[in-house]
Design a protein that fits this description.
Layout (H helix, E strand, L loop, with lengths): L5 H18 L6 H24 L5 H4 L2 E8 L19 H4 L6 E6 H9 L1 E8 L5 E8 L6 E6 H12 L6 E5 L5 E6 L1
Antiparallel strand pairs: 1-2, 1-5, 3-4, 4-5, 6-7
């Protein structure tokens, strides 16, 4: 259980600035990409832990939905494969149909789990050679689809969660006698 949330939230605010700076780098090196991967992974893990604490975030942020772009697995390999594995997971065009993306809204907890349980984790660069999005697919969903999440959206989430300090939390006991958060703001 998280007692003092600032130790989890302050790094999110610092991470948002770090992501912003790394997005400006043209043709990023492996060191830049490794740092970006670390900031994103640890940031979304921290957000999930804050959500699991149940009293450290406002109800609005607990219910937050995030925009992601979903790309299906290619139809020609849907049934028989091959699917992403330890030796080929970097060959994304081979597995996912990037011409058939659709924008969907997913719960923040789902997005956190995509980072935490990512089997596919790669970056998408824009025409200037700067990182723009992260490509993810969890170990459970890699045979169905992958997602892209814009780094600008990740920055927004990090800043919202990093600055979220509820001052009013209302709780009640449920039918099993356990405390349940009704509202926090």
């Amino acid at each position: 259980m998280i007692w003092e949330s600032s130790y989890w939230k302050d790094p999110l605010l610092e991470g948002s600035t770090r992501i912003e700076n790394l997005m400006k780098v043209q043709d990023p090196s492996d060191d830049h990409l490794g740092e970006l991967e670390h900031v994103l992974m640890t940031g979304f893990f921290s957000i999930r832990k804050l959500m699991e604490a149940r009293t450290k975030l406002s109800s609005t942020n607990m219910k937050r939905r995030c925009k992601v772009r979903r790309y299906p697995i290619r139809s020609e390999i849907k049934e028989t494969g091959p699917f992403p594995d330890l030796m080929n997971y970097h060959q994304l065009d081979k597995f996912y149909d990037f011409s058939k993306g659709s924008i969907i809204a997913k719960d923040l907890s789902y997005v956190c789990n995509q980072f935490i349980h990512s089997f596919v984790f790669s970056f998408m660069l824009n025409e200037r050679g700067q990182v723009e999005s992260v490509i993810l697919s969890s170990d459970k969903e890699k045979k169905k689809f992958c997602h892209t999440i814009c780094l600008s959206d990740a920055i927004e989430v990090f800043r919202l969660i990093g600055a979220d300090y509820p001052s009013d939390v209302r709780m009640r006991r449920n039918e099993n006698g356990e405390w349940q958060v009704v509202n926090s703001q």
